[in-house]
Amino acid sequence: MSASENITSDVEKKALEFLEYLEVEKGYSPLTLRNYRHYLNRFSKFLKNENFKGDVSDIDSETVRKYRIFLSRLVNKNGDSLSRKTQGYHAIALRSFLRWLTKRDFDVLSPDKIDLPKISDRQVKFLSGEKVDRLLNAPSLSKINGKRDKAILEVLYSTGLRVSELVGLNRDNIDLKTREFGVVGKGGKSRVVFLSQRAADWLQKYLDVREDHFKPLFVRHSGKMDPSIADNKMRLSARSVQRMIKKYKKKIGITEDVTPHVLRHSFATDLLMAGADLRSVQEMLGHKNIQTTQIYTHVTHKHLKDVHRAFHDKGGKE
Questions:
Q1: 3-113: CATH number
Q2: Which partner from 37, 86, 123, 232 sits 20 to 30 angstroms from 205, CA to CA?
Q3: Do the beta carbons of residue 218 and residue 148 sit within 8 Å?
Q4: Are 22 and 28 in contact (CB under 8 A)?
Q5: Is 264 a catalytic residue?
Q6: Which of 95, 147, 148, 162 is catalytic?
Q7: Dihedral sign, CA of 280, 285, 289, 294?
Q8: Is 95 a catalytic residue?
Q9: Are 101 and 114 in contact (CB under 8 A)?
């Protein structure tokens, strides 16, 4: 093993400790941890290819500059370049890693010296009220799968839950009388979630036809429902919910991409257009920072502009 490989392993070792910190201390989700691991592994491989001769304290502005150039020129097997948004995620991961090292008193490059690439404003995808209604009414209610899917769609739109939060729910988490329950979202952030009466009613109808005693709120109904099977083996996966929504999207002929997150966006947009304040929506979505919630203001501002144009900006034509 070469000296450079030994030296680079120092970065890898500290990156592993950083990931463990994110998992244990920050409570990051498995998906977020996987992404951070991917971005930091790419940085480590870049250092090896550059024959980097130093430890974390020797990562300087020139190293970062070369890394940014490497990312901008990187192409996948299909010949596609990394989007500026994805390049930004790599930079965020590296900056977070350096910030963690700084807190541990390592003499490293200041995280603030890593600028993020400028990207266009995030576009929020959401469904109109008419399309939401069509989607919610798409499941056939003759079988238990359809009743389950109906309950899932109603709960997603009523609460704005992330799909990972939805599939992690157990029956005993939900109080259908008060129509509220607690969830732990990204970064271990807890919040109270409220169900509409309609969502609670459909959830009750689904649970009423369940003859099993599995703990998960939503389970798969294909194959054997053997009571000896572990609860989490029966739990519906996030991927299953995503596939289910795409199935109903095709059934009713919606051309837009529809995902659980689009329903979350639709929930938030509907609240803001109805007059809810941004701070309340932030709390209901479980956003840590108000800046994250502000992506919806672009949508609501456009809505208000359209209303103004339709009802006031008549230019003296009458």
A1: 1.10.150.130
A2: 232
A3: yes
A4: yes
A5: yes
A6: 162
A7: negative
A8: no
A9: no
- Give pLDDT tens digits along the chain (318 positions): 333 344 457 899 999 999 999 988 888 878 889 999 999 999 999 999 999 878 899 999 999 999 999 999 998 777 888 888 889 999 999 999 999 999 999 999 999 999 877 655 556 788 888 999 999 999 999 999 999 999 999 999 999 999 999 999 999 999 999 999 999 888 778 899 999 999 999 999 999 999 999 999 999 998 777 778 888 889 999 999 999 999 999 999 998 889 999 999 999 988 888 888 888 889 899 888 887 888 777 666 665 566 556 666 655 444
Cβ neighbors of 271 (< 8 A, separation 6 or more) are: 280, 281, 284
Q: Among the options 28, 36, 248, 296, which is catalytic?
A: 296
Q: Please tell me the CATH superfamily of domain 129-308, with its number.
A: Intergrase catalytic core (1.10.443.10)
Catalytic annotation on 48? no
